[in-house]
Amino acid sequence: MGHLPVSDTGLVASIFKEGAFHFLFSFFTVVAAIVGLAFFSRGNRLERAVARPFHKSFVAPVVAILVFAILGCTSHMWFNPSHRRWPRIKPIPYVLVEEALHAFESLEPPADYREGILALGGNPDAEYPFWHWAGGDSANADAVEKASLDAFKARPLEERPDIILFNIESLRGWTSDMRTRSCMRFPNLCKLVLSGTYYPNAHSVGYPSIEGFLGIMVGVPSHPRATFLYNYPNTRMRSIGDVLQAAGYNRQVLCGSDPKLDNELVWQQKWFDYNEFKPENDNDVALARRFVEMYRERDKDKPLFFHWMSRSMHIPFDLPADMGERPADAEAAYLRAEAYMDSALGIIVNEVKNGPRANSTLFILVGDHSYPNSAQTAESERLGKIHEGETWVSLIFAGAGAERTMDLRPVSQGSIASSIVAFLGLDVSNHFMGAKLISKAVPPNSADSLQPSDSADSSVVPLRELPGVYSFRQGEIAYRIDSLAFFAGMDDATPATVRTASWKADWDVSRPVEGFVSGRSVTVDEKLLAETTAKMRAAARAWEFVVTKNKLMP
């Protein structure tokens, strides 16, 4: 079909090598403990202790030990119970038993598999429920895809737009919300918003950065329990980088953090023609200047796909020494780091705008994930580990004739891949599960409605029907649809917690970082709540089964 699946022993070996130290350390720790226990047993002749008669004086201590053991093992049920907290504090024996039972249960599709696949927009009757054949027919897919790619590559270069994707580290969606005048402190973000399609309520597929990288490049949700790209490296998949390679693009990625730290390097090498990380480029302005150098040296006979991954907004928000001392206040430190990132955006955008590809460049900006403020950290007790503090980012498509409009409905960063394919007008086989948020270039409309305002009132621009947005992390589920956000655990039986989604900037915008905590609590119909909670868990279990069984791509 003109593309290669990501499935080879070299990739698996490379990822294993990255984690070999942790594996060997854990292994030898266990062995040392067993050997030590053996020597202790031998030295104290425990076999004699076993043969001794049971004295009545032993009864009280044994009963006390049993009582304390029972109380300790069940304390999560009666002492300040929280089904959100329990997964983070459960003892190792619980985890081992649960994982063994789960491995046995995952041999067969879950009972609600069909409902789960439908909830995620797939075809439960297909062996590969999320695979879309070019032309809609497996028999002719290769021919249809080849014809589509050949037609695209035959276009004049000015009709094959460059794609520059800004992957912003720890982008807090509420801080970067361009619906409020307070965010005019980020002028280059505002310029992008005013020149394209803006989704202020975008969410990452998971957390941390490697999950955001998955959502952006592969167009699928994160694994409900594990880390997809780390724990399932042999999964057959097709990234947007693979598609753009087939379409004749020159693919480059530039990052400010070492990609080896979270095993992104092997994927960058798979999905790009050139990847670069240099320790000296450890801040966003240095990365922007390096972009300018690479941009001027690019292959000018091919369209460019450039994935720029920022650095300065990573905790602890350090900037170069000539920027002065980092503020002690966390809010001030983050705002300073984002303003610094914004200046880097200006360097990049100005370089492109002053060049020959100014009208043939699509800019995409999104966060890899969000980052909880101090108040949101406590929300994990109520909402789990995948609430707005982890997932709320912004999403912008700008330039190259992208429609100038704003849509307040929740969308996923996992829709970027499918949107690029739609924007380029390609008919290719893929498993991208997101919505098509932009289509072929259209004449620009008035951007007056996008002018930032102190008013919290905004209207929705109904571009198309949009599916609900799922995010997964360590057994926790978030589901957002229209004005509601639902949060539930995969394995407990309690109903989902419901909050309002942030359709209006109705939080304390005078505090750009700490002013937002979460949506307001809301009561919904019991039947709707039960059905939605069941659908969320079905979706998580079905997606987990698809990944475990390697049924993403033929």
List the helices and strands and how they pair.
Elements: H1 9-43, H2 46-51, H3 59-78, H4 86-89, H5 92-105, H6 113-119, H7 141-153, E1 162-168, H8 187-194, E2 196-203, H9 209-218, H10 228-231, H11 240-246, E3 250-255, H12 265-271, E4 274-277, H13 284-296, E5 304-309, H14 330-353, E6 361-367, H15 374-377, H16 380-383, H17 388-391, E7 392-398, E8 405-406, E9 411-412, H18 416-424, E10 469-473, E11 476-481, E12 484-489, E13 497-500, H19 526-548
Parallel strand pairs: 1-5, 1-6, 2-8, 2-9, 3-4, 3-5
Antiparallel strand pairs: 2-7, 6-7, 10-11, 11-12, 12-13
Helix pairs in contact: 6-19, 13-14
Helix content: 25-40%
Q: Could you list the spans in which at least 5 consecutive residues all have pLDDT below 50?
A: 1-19, 441-463
Major sheet characteristics: 9 strands, mixed
Rough outline: globular
The CATH topology of the domain at 134-445 comes to: Alkaline Phosphatase, subunit A
CATH architecture of the domain at 134-445: 3-Layer(aba) Sandwich
CATH superfamily of the domain at 134-445: Alkaline Phosphatase, subunit A
Write up what this structure looks like:
The radius of gyration is 26 Å and the shape is globular. The protein is α/β, with parallel strands linked by helices and 554 residues long. Strands 1, 2, 3, 4, 5, 6, 7, 8 and 9 form a nine-stranded mixed β-sheet that branches. It has 19 helices and 13 strands. It has a domain of 312 residues: Alkaline Phosphatase, subunit A.
